[in-house]
Write a structure and sequence with these properties.
Layout lengths: L19 E12 L2 E13 L4 E5 L6 H9 L7 E10 L2 E2 L5 H10 L1 E4 L3 H4 L6 H13 L3 H14 L5 H4 L9 H13 L5 E5 L7 H18 L2 E6 L2 H7 L2 E6 L2 E7 H6 L4 H8 L39 H5 L5 E4 L2 E3 L4 H6 L1
Parallel strand pairs: 3-8, 3-9, 6-7, 7-8
Antiparallel strand pairs: 1-2, 1-4, 4-5, 9-10, 10-12, 11-12
Helix pairs in contact: 4-5, 5-7, 7-8
The structure holds iron/sulfur cluster.
Length: 341
């Protein structure tokens, strides 16, 4: 029998203590080339008004966990094999499909990475935002368009009232991302999951979008789950971080603690690969090798082929995610040594 990869209570606290709780979530894809274990026993929680960053390289399972929360996994081939996704203590996965849809649209919404693909090119942006009010609230067409214009104004699209009848291609990348945020905000959700919301944008526009999300969070106290591979974005925005590697969380904790004293060699490697102004002229130390295929995860600790600390134990035994300090967890046999390094 396989042991769970997280110690009991890794979502922190009793069920229902937090606004959104992901508890022991595992997702697999059955493909012609075998089973892809995209998410393995992942647990985390989010509180009201908090920003949690889920950090990882592409293919680490971070977006798949978000899709599982939003109920938009391509299923089949995807299959949730275990776990709970609780919103205010209610497990979304046990609700009838209709209630799941309502909960996900109204309480938890999502901002996607690629606004151009997420928006329908045939309809005006105003009508796409208005559709949220018409479908979920039964609002009249005129009132829904008024609300759409108000929302476009709220996400600071200049001349919003004159732009409701424009189509997505008439907006810049940054403005399209604002439209996506307006759609996500339409029903006043308690949680927004933002999946790489700034990846396709240039640096200045990235900063504007992040500032906008944080301003909106201050206005309505929503919780934000920010999915990203960008350490800079995490450092600037998040309160806590969950670091993902090969489909599982390998470290969690507050931004200050994880960034200043990592407790997992993968996180330490990520930190060492950031250019720093006090080390101009010295070489960066990237993590050697590349992440494993999720269809062929190494036995033992999945990071061992790239880990400078790996010993025989790491090649045979997968370390559990255990507490290494208040609010901090690490999945490394030598987490204390890494912390003290
Ligand atoms: Fe490295 Fe071993 Fe820790 Fe895995 S368990 S991160 S291989 S030291």
């Amino acid at each position: 029998m396989n042991l769970p990869l997280t110690e009991p209570g890794a979502a922190d606290g009793a069920p229902g203590d937090h606004l959104l709780e992901v508890d022991g979530l595992s997702v697999e894809f059955r493909t012609d080339h075998g089973t892809v274990r995209a998410v393995r026993d992942v647990s985390w929680h989010l509180d009201k008004g908090e920003t949690l960053a889920i950090l990882g390289e592409s293919g680490s399972g971070k977006s798949v966990s978000a899709q599982a929360i939003m109920g938009i996994l391509d299923s089949p081939p995807a299959r949730i094999t275990s776990g709970e996704i609780r919103f205010n203590g209610t497990d979304l996965l046990t609700l009838p499909a209709e209630e799941q849809r309502a909960m996900r649209g109204e309480q938890v919404s999502m901002v996607f990475q690629d606004a151009l693909s997420a928006l329908n090119p045939v309809f005006t942006v105003g009508s796409q935002i208005a559709e949220m009010f018409r479908v979920h609230r039964g609002t009249s067409k005129k009132e829904a368009m008024d609300k759409a214009a108000e929302l476009m104004d709220r996400v600071r699209i200049p001349g919003a009232r004159n732009r409701v009848k424009d189509h997505p291609h008439q907006f810049s990348g940054g403005m399209r991302q604002r439209v996506m945020i307006a759609m996500a905000l339409a029903l006043d959700p308690a949680v927004i999951i933002a999946d790489e919301p700034t990846t396709a944008l240039d640096v200045t526009v990235q900063a504007q979008i992040i500032d906008l999300l944080l301003d909106l969070q201050r206005e309505n106290g929503m919780g934000i789950v920010l999915i990203t591979h960008d350490l800079g974005v995490v450092a600037e925005t998040a309160d806590r971080v969950g670091v993902m590697y090969a489909g599982r969380i390998v470290e969690t904790g507050s931004i200050e603690e994880v960034f200043s004293r990592p407790a997992h060699p993968y996180t330490a490697g990520l930190m060492n690969s950031i250019p720093r102004v006090d080390q101009i002229g010295s070489r960066l130390s990237p993590i050697v090798g590349s992440p494993p295929s999720l269809a062929a995860i190494p036995v033992g600790c999945a990071f061992h082929p790239r880990c400078p600390r790996a010993v025989d134990l790491c090649r045979s035994e997968d370390p559990r995610l255990v507490e290494v300090g208040p609010g901090r967890r690490s999945a490394c046999h030598f987490a204390k040594d890494v912390l003290d390094a």
